[in-house]
UniProtKB/TrEMBL annotation:
GO terms for molecular function: ubiquitin-protein transferase activity. InterPro entries: Ankyrin_rpt, Ankyrin_rpt-contain_sf. The lineage of its organism: Eukaryota, Fungi, Dikarya, Ascomycota, Pezizomycotina. The keyword Repeat applies. Coiled coil: none annotated. Gene3D superfamilies: Ankyrin repeat-containing domain. GO terms for biological process: protein K6-linked ubiquitination. It comes from Glonium stellatum. This is Ankyrin. It comes from the Eukaryota. ANK repeats lie at residues 22-54, 55-87. Keywords: ANK repeat, Repeat.
Length: 96
């Protein structure tokens, strides 16, 4: 991701909670890619930290699955639900 582009889009009023056809949000993508700066930007602009995609995966779940420890730590510090499971009931801890 490109932090400056993300910042510009947010400033222009783009919705940080917009979902694609699978329920994936910009926060999910940034967490999955390990982009701390963009994750912080979205969280600072009202991104819903525990919003789940169509498979029940949250940003925290995505960060764990993709082995992005600093993002996991940031999301937990910002209040992410550690116990929220996916559609199969697997929590981020199951995926660690």
């Amino acid at each position: 991701g490109h932090p400056e582009m993300a910042r510009l889009l947010i400033e222009e009023g783009f919705n940080a909670n917009a979902e694609d056809e699978s329920g994936i949000t910009p926060l999910h993508m940034a967490a999955a890619r390990g982009n701390r700066e963009i994750v912080q930007l979205f969280l600072n602009n009202n991104a819903k930290i525990d919003l789940a995609d169509g498979f029940g995966r949250t940003a925290l779940f995505q960060a764990v699955v993709n082995h992005h420890g600093p993002i996991v730590q940031l999301l937990i510090q910002r209040g992410a639900n550690r116990e929220k499971g996916n559609l199969h009931g697997w929590t981020p801890l199951h995926m660690a």
